[in-house]
Amino acid sequence: MADPVLPVPHRPGAVSMFFVAKAGVFALGFWIWLLALVLTGDEATGAHVLAATGAITTTLVGVVLGSRLALQRSAAVRHAELKRLLVDISWNAFAAAGNAETSGKVVPFPTAAGEDERSSRDRISVFDRAPGGERSGRDRGGDRRR
């Protein structure tokens, strides 16, 4: 039998990829502008400082956004693998519970409440009893005496 087609995990980043590419284009523009200013041989002016600042800033922004995008994508892949692993574990546990020959190997799923559980609900808690053993004034039902 052929393996079923596995769904592609959610891969964030269409918008993030746009901003990484945009930062790369701006950085490239600033670096070209700086190179053109340097090759003209003029003295350093405000335009040189602006081009250098823009080149460094947009390069750093591109690197930060690119690393964030890479971390998000790897986290999405890890999350998809973890979900797949949890589904496999739960399915294997369910199948093992159905195929168990003895009840000692697998804990069965809870069914209807047994007599022990019903009788424990009818009991009176320690807080509802007075120190002498008689009921306190915090009786939750019946008639109350003052």
Distance between the termini: 76 Å
Number of helices: 3
Q: What is the helix/strand order?
A: HHH
Percent strand equals under 5%
Low-pLDDT residue spans: none
Mean pLDDT figure: 75
Q: Specify the biggest β-sheet.
A: none
- From the spread of the alpha carbons, the general shape counts as rod-shaped
Instruction: Output the structural class.
Output: mainly alpha
Radius of gyration: 35 Å
In short:
The protein has three helices and no strands. By secondary structure, it is an all-alpha fold.
Please characterize this protein's 3D structure.
This protein is an all-alpha fold. The chain is rod-shaped, with a radius of gyration of 35 Å. It has 3 helices and no strands. 60% of the residues lie in helices and 0% in strands. The chain has helices spanning 14-39, 46-99, 115-122. The mean pLDDT is 75.
Which descriptors apply to this entry?
146 residues, mainly alpha, 3 helices, rod-shaped
Helix and strand arrangement:
Elements: H1 14-39, H2 46-99, H3 115-122
